Amino acid sequence: MVPLMLGLVFLSFTILTYILMAPSADQVAIWKRTSEIRRHTADPEVAEDAELGLPFVQRVLEPLFERLYAYVLRYTPSGIKDTYRRRLQQAGRPMETAQFVGLKVILAGVLLVMGVAFNLLLLAGSGLGMRVLSIVALAGLGAYFPDFWLSRKITDRQKALERALPEVMDLLSVSVEAGLGFDGAIQKVAEKFREPIASEFSGYLKEIKLGKARADALRGLADRNSLPDLQTFVASIIQADQLGVSFAKVLRVQSEQLRQKRRQRAEERAAKIPIKIMLPLVLFIFPTIFIVILGPAVISIAKNFM
């Protein structure tokens, strides 16, 4: 049973690594389109040799996982699909909804099998309730791990957006005051800033080019991120656009408010440092100091009483 459990652990980590390092949907679409063009334009024998020359992962595993993802997504309730689609969008779409749901099912299934093997190997003499609880706990851990990873991605992305927003407001304000239109200033932000700000504002510009109204595109920008500062900025711009107020004044006020909020958040984090540092001090630093200072005295006293 030990080789079986080791094989299952290796298989689960292999599948997890493959899914997390899988290419994006745009890259997959480009590869598929390129392969279709080559297959239709090349000789059948040459195309067959080229297909057989592909690595085992691209030739066998990728189509297998794609079918599995499609099958799992077909039987997933629409509410759950919408929730994960929205959360993946907030995380910057690191993978498709079908891949994420399939990852949860695969990890839950692998850890379920590992739980059964673990029970047969180590908990054979335990009660039925203990064995069932351990199997369910392992399966639940496998299903929960992708949610935990996605929550971390969302949190990190929102923190990056929050840190970059004051500089974004400064650049927007300066660009608008220099004579650029609002969309032109957004284009400058998309060019000058890194991810995730660049992708979010580039998405807004794409929606504008496709004919979407500015207010709707801005609301979509706010909905994709659910960041309070960004939502406040979007609401101010929409209101200024409707009332005919100068964008430059609104952007200047937004920049000042965001900088003040960032300063307040930094002061708040600084005020929490003494409380957070108490636990490592009490558990690790103080005992070491006491040992170094009082150790020789304790040894001397012990020798005098011997």
Layout: helices, strands, pairs:
Elements: H1 2-20, H2 25-41, H3 44-52, H4 56-74, H5 78-90, H6 97-122, H7 128-177, H8 182-192, H9 197-209, H10 214-225, H11 228-243, H12 247-305
Task: Tally the beta strands.
Answer: 0
Helix/strand-derived class? mainly alpha
Percent helix, as a range, is: over 70%
Q: How far is the N terminus from the C terminus?
A: 55 Å
Specify the oligomeric state. Answer: single chain
> What fraction strand?
under 5%
Features:
306 residues; 12 helices; mainly alpha
Can you walk through the features of this model?
By secondary structure, the protein is mostly helical. It has helices at residues 2-20, 25-41, 44-52, 56-74, 78-90, 97-122, 128-177, 182-192, 197-209, 214-225, 228-243, 247-305. The mean pLDDT is 77.
Q: Brief description of this entry?
A:
The chain has 306 residues and is mainly alpha-helical.
